[in-house]
Amino acid sequence: MKKTLTLLFTLFIGYAHAQNADSVAIRKIFNEALSNGKSYEWLRHLTKQVGPRLSGSAGAQKAVDWTKQVMEQQGFDRVFLQDVLVPHWVRGAKEEAFIHNGKQKTNVPIAALGGSVATGPKGVEAGVIEVKSFPELRELGADKVKGKIVFFNRPMDPTKINTFEAYGGAVDQRANGATEAAKLGAVGAIVRSMTNVHDDNPHVGGMRYGTGVALIPTAAISTNAADLLSKSLTENSNLTFYFKQNCETLPDAKSYNVVGEIKGSEKPDEIIVVGGHLDSWDLAEGAHDDGAGCVQSIEVLRIMKSLGIKPKRTLRAVMFMNEENGLRGGVQYADLAKKNNEKHIAAVESDNGGFTPRGFGIVGTPEQRAKVMPWKPLLAPYGLLEIGAGGGGADIGPLAQSGTVLFGFKPDSQRYFDYHHTSIDKFETVSQRELELGAASMAALIYLLDQYGL
After folding, report:
1. Domain containing 51 — which CATH number?
2. I need a labelling partner for 180 at 20 to 30 A (CA). Which of 219, 246, 354, 405 fits?
3. Do 223 and 256 fall into the same domain?
4. Is 5 inside a domain boundary?
5. In this structure, are 335 and 242 located in the same domain?
6. Which H or E run contains 313?
7. In whole angstroms, what is the distance from residue 284 CA to residue 201 CA?
8. DSSP secondary structure string, 336-363?
9. Among the three residues 226, 246, 266, which one is the final residue of a domain in this structure?
10. Which residues are catalytic?
């Protein structure tokens, strides 16, 4: 009995010592990020000097060149590019739209959804059918929908505390609305912007066409304009809506994932990824989506190097290309990892904005999640309280097929969809301190993953 108690006491002392050492290391990580952080100035350059960077654009290539240069300047062990063939959709001249009630025309702000076809040079004008759901649309049938513009006007649910849950409950309209409308003979589709904010900024995003269905033009309309159109329809159901957009899809373009690496000192064949997506929508500087995630990921490796932390495992910061309208970068990264027989034990993605850190969502087995739970007391002092089952991230998602445990960085969600996919997603909307706290939070998790594995 005495030997057993002695052993338990020894194990307890050893655990407490390890916890104390980890606590000290994490405190140093936060001190470094908050005192000497580089992420904010990197974000300033990415948004103001590079700017919008939709896949296939000159801005996207400029972002590739610049992030590669930044990581090389930090002296990472290896910086390299991975070829990715990406979609190349261009918006063309600014869209035009108005509500015509028979007496007057009222201009309203719209923006073509990514991947949409153009209207043609004369635009499209037709009567409007307002619906809140696909079942409601189908119930109306082709007799009422044919030749009309379908107006999808289901708002994000304001009662959802997690705004990503609200977004998920509404975004099918944007993704599939044009296809569902075209099945019934509609000539166009207009979709309420994905935000709870009432403003005049169209929130764009990707859409997709179904096979064997006519390709009809589709655009996002600002929430204020959506409310106006809905109200106008109650007053005059015979009004018409006009819109003109000039977008087109060009042949796929060559682009790249940008990868920076610090080689592991003990288990170099085990890889831990931290990343964000380098592309943004063409209307946006892409500060929160996802410039923040990119600069935070580079900052994670910079912090490790600056503090003299020699990771046991290989750490990689990956700037994924084409998350917004194709996910080609994430798929290509996972394919190359499989082809090269690389072992990725964990991947962390930041693609929810540069707001105050709240925690991490984990995609893995119950056993894998259980290994993370003892770390909660180490992360709690920094406000990282929401740690458990949840989403990982779109770009790292393909790695899950190889057994990689995925972690999605979770900042506060309340303001994200104020800016998401709009022209106001600018550098000025990002708090330096919140951004740096996020980078430190990610670095702390990477440190623990490197120390203990999964």
Report:
1. 3.40.630.10
2. 246
3. no
4. no
5. no
6. strand 313-320
7. 11
8. HHHHTT-EEEEEEE--S-SS-EEEEEEE
9. 246
10. 323
Cα separation of 302 and 306, whole Å? 6
Q: What is the pLDDT of residue 8?
A: 42
As a whole number of angstroms, the distance between CA 56 and CA 254 comes to 7
> What is d(CA 333, CA 274) in angstroms, rounded to the nearest whole number?
13
pLDDT at 19: 76
Q: Which of 246, 268, 291 is the last residue of a domain?
A: 246
Burial 334-370 (b: 16+ CB within 10 A, else e): beebeeeebebbbbbbbbbbbbbbbbbbbbbeeebbe
User: 């304009």: which residue's tokens?
Assistant: 225
Identify whether residues 275 and 368 lie together within a single domain: yes
Tokens of 71: 């990581």
C-beta of residue 292 within 8 angstroms of C-beta of residue 276 = yes
CATH number for the domain spanning 101: value is 3.50.30.30
Q: Partners of 388 in the beta sheet?
A: 361
Assess if residue 98 is contained within a domain.
yes
Q: Are residues 285 and 402 located together in one domain of the fold?
A: yes
Residue 287 within a domain: yes
Q: Residue 17 has what pLDDT?
A: 56
Q: Report d(CA 222, CA 228) in Å as an integer.
A: 10
Strand (E) positions, 153-203?
A: 188-192
pLDDT for position 11: 41
List the Cα angle 134/136/141 in 5-degree steps.
95
Q: Are residues 348 and 373 in the same domain?
A: yes
Same domain for 255 and 238, yes or no, is no
Domain assignment present for residue 379? The answer is: yes
Q: Are 99 and 83 within one domain?
A: no
Dihedral Cα 130, 135, 138, 144, nearest 10 deg: -30
**Domain count for the chain:** 2
Quick one: 126 and 65 in the same domain?
no
Directed axis angle between helix 292-306 and helix 432-452, to 10°?
Answer: 60
Phi-psi region of 344 (alpha: psi -120 to 50; beta: other; left: phi over 0): beta
pLDDT in tens, 333-350: 999 999 999 999 999 999
In angstroms, rounded to a whole number, what is the distance separating the alpha carbons of residues 388 and 375? 11
Interatomic CA distance for residues 242 and 237, integer angstroms: 15
pLDDT at 1: 58
Residue spans of the chain under pLDDT 50: 5, 7-15
Name which of 109, 110, 94 is nearest 189 in CA terms.
110
- Which pLDDT score, from 0 to 100, does residue 6 have? 52
